[in-house]
Amino acid sequence: MNASHEKKTRGGIRVQGKSPIAAPPRVADPQRRANVREGSPTNSATSTNTTKASPGGGVAVGTPPHENEDAEEVDRSARDRKRIGELEKETLVLQEEFEKELTLLSHKLTHESETAAFWQKKYTALHQAFLKTDTDLKVLKQETEGTEGRDRDVKTRISSLILDRDAFREAFNEAMGEVRMREEEGRGLRDQVRSLKEFISSSSKGVEQVSDEGAGEVMQRLGNGLQNWVISNFRRVKIDIESLPDEIRDQISELVPTYISIAAISKIYLIQSLISMVLVQKIFQSYFAGLSEDEAEKLKATEETLSRYGSAESLNQWRSTTLSILHKTAPQRLLAETDNTITSTLHRINTLLEAMASVSTNPARDTSLKTLISNAIDLARLLRVQKAVFSIIMPEILEHQRTVFDASEMEDIGGGSEDDEDVEIGKREVRCVTFPGIIKHGDENGEQAHLRNVVSKARVLCGPD
Q: Which residues are bridge partners to 439 per DSSP?
């Protein structure tokens, strides 16, 4: 504002003083120029007329020529000054408009500079956060390379951090909001795994009865962990079921008979269904997970023999007491057989997935999957040592057989409500089972076998009519 005021003041000084615009050169009267070119006949005539003798013998005196020229010069000067004043006023107006426009553009330039500086600072901060996260991850990897005997919790966390780093790199240029969402998802997954380990560890310390809510919570966490593992590792992988070898096709068809129709709906649901069926067959349906087949058959035969002589309640107590002995010593005595079970289960799952999705072996992916398999073994053992009978529900979906949705035992992951009219009239059809459920028979003491409680519902996907 001071600069503008000074400029206006200077302009006013120029108006009062001498104008910076030079006066135009004098323009001769056209008649005078014509007289000059024609030899000034008019002036001659005027002179002649002026010098004529009057009748009285004197000379008649007319208007002198130089007085006319002075009058014309005065008129021209007045017109020139008037024109100069008008031009100076126009110049001042243009100068004020130019100064206003210059001030406006200066403000805009300042605003744009501040905006550019803000976004540059924002980008620098985000880039520094990315570099810090990447550096922290490299430090963690260096610390774990030469260390053996780390517990599974640390391995799971490292794998999750690697996944988070990859997700962060991919989503950094897309949106920072998505990065924060993935980090929260990773932290939630680590918390679920940590809570699951703590719960299984505390439950395996003694022969204590687990509540229905506790067993259901562990089963739900296991299902969530499997879902997150499939999404993290196979959400961008394409599957090809047309070119499968006959042997692999037969195995997949045995596990999931409707795999072709499920693949058309979602590859994620198909992979979850395959892994869930493998876990049910290899772990949950075994007599006691981690026990050799010969020993398991012997105990099973003994239980069948005792069932002919004793009541169901006493048989449940015998099974709980016997398997509790194995459960206490399982971490030491059954370590080798447990590792074999984990390895064989992992091998079968990888064989099916690598043939179907054309993916190679990934150590980080296998490590997190081993953790899920180990958690499934711990849960299966915990359920078997209970006096009540816990059974796994995994409905088999066949092409030629229609399976109707049962709201009491199933949970529709497709978003259907239990209050829908299709549920009431039994029209909702189950297309796929992505994770099994748990049903409890009897009470905590192994008695009242007629009691039945759904501890955890099976996760299914229903289709339209």
A: 391, 454
